[in-house]
Known about the structure:
By secondary structure, chain A is α+β, with helices and mostly antiparallel strands. Chain A has helices spanning 7-20, 26-36, 40-53, 58-70, 74-87, 92-104, 108-121, 126-151, 202-222, 261-282; strands at residues 179-183, 188-192, 228-235, 238-243, 249-255. Chain A folds into two domains: 7-140, Serine Threonine Protein Phosphatase 5, Tetratricopeptide repeat (Alpha Horseshoe); 179-282, Dynein light chain 2a, cytoplasmic (Beta-Lactamase). Chain A has ten helices and five strands, in the order ααααααααββαβββα. Chain A has a five-stranded antiparallel beta sheet with strand order 2-1-5-4-3, sandwiched between helices. In chain A, a hairpin with a 4-residue loop joins β1 (179-183) and β2 (188-192). In chain A, α2 runs antiparallel to α3 (40-53) and α4 (58-70) runs parallel beside α6. The longest helix of chain A has 26 residues, at 126-151. The radius of gyration of chain A is 21 Å and the shape is globular. Chain B has a single domain (3-115), classed as Dynein light chain 2a, cytoplasmic (Beta-Lactamase, 2-Layer Sandwich), CATH 3.30.450.30. Chain B is built from three helices and five strands, in the order αββαβββα. Chain B has helices at 3-12, 41-61, 100-115, and strands spanning 17-24, 30-35, 69-74, 77-85, 88-95. Chain B has a five-stranded antiparallel beta sheet with strand order 2-1-5-4-3, sandwiched between helices. The longest helix of chain B has 21 residues, at 41-61. Chain B starts with a helix and ends with a helix. The interface between A and B is large, with 41 and 31 residues. β3 (228-235) of chain A pairs antiparallel with β3 of chain B, so a sheet runs across the interface.
Amino acid sequence: xxxxxSMADVIRRLTQELAADPTSLVFLELAESLRQSGQxxxxxxxxxxxxxxxxxxxxxxxxxxxxxxxxxxxxxxxxAWKRALELAPQHVxxxxxxxxxxxxxxxxxxxxPHLEAARAAAPQDEGVATALAxxxxxxxxxxxxxxxxxAQAAMAAPVRAPVAEPEDALADGELxxxxxxxxxxxxxxxxxxxxxxGASVGDAVAAHLxxxxxEAARAAxxxxxxxxxxxxxxxADGNVLVLAPTPTTALVIVRPAEVPVGRLALLAxxxxxxxxxxxxxxx
Amino acid sequence: xNAYQELLCRVTDVRGIRAAMLVSxxxxxxxxxxxxxxxxxxxxxxxxxxxxLRIRRSAASAGHSxxxxxxxxxxxxxxxxxxxxxxxLVVAIADREANLGLARLELRVAASRLHA
Lengths: 283, 116
């Protein structure tokens, strides 16, 4: 983007450039700009046309994969990124993309080699370094949790609402306790919730709460209340709040009943900002 | 005006509250209502009951008891539901400018009197 140019200006300029020379590789930049501005249908048309001309260009497959991932078609995105790697085995974008897909599917172990390959190919890429560090932390957390679970009997006990600390601060790179991020299909992307006995219930809660997010969006639309912002539920066991950090994900935060809902909403917004950074790092 | 409607009118007297209703939680049907013009009571009841039911199932999956209060905030207002006992919900629709704190207090009063 040139100085002083808006995204609309960029798209207009690149469209003119491509019209003037349809064989130009400027389609890569145009489709990416369209994708970033949320015009996924137009981005896909431009990217597919470009890929038709340049089927051996790894960047074109990477671009298509990013658009497909934004559209929620993970299987097709995975195929496109794999094709990019066949053409360019060190392609950073393709490795990052495949790591993102693995992460979304909860397969953190498989995400690791892709991020390590991306790191080796682009050691200066701070986004890759950060994502790699966070993934290592997450994997260590899973190891610890697995050992804990083995030692505990499965008991039906309520989700343990973390004790509210004065700042309730979330450490850099961490979502914080009692927070889980899930995708539109109810699959857990990050974080976890534990019952009072320490057992993980993040997956079960995520599966149910994906439906709540859809229901809230539908209710807000039908009641002409505009876009939904969050749903809170207050019970004797604790307070829960759900919001959408991105259009295709939801974030759930659980706190003790004494944490008022207004404060819970502020904490959730804070966590949502961190979640957006985390998701962007992996995208 | 019956006793139910008197309680609901107290809720709609709060500035910015467009609707207050007593709703059957299981089937989302209206039991009593106090509505401003243009509010579709049947739709509000059905959506409020459906959302509350989903939240209740989610809470159960986490081992939590049924939520006493469910609140959905949106760009131009909010939907509030409170358990009133006997399978009933007290539901309110609020504008963006409404005093939600006061509305919640009146909803609690209505719910407790219904439950009594």
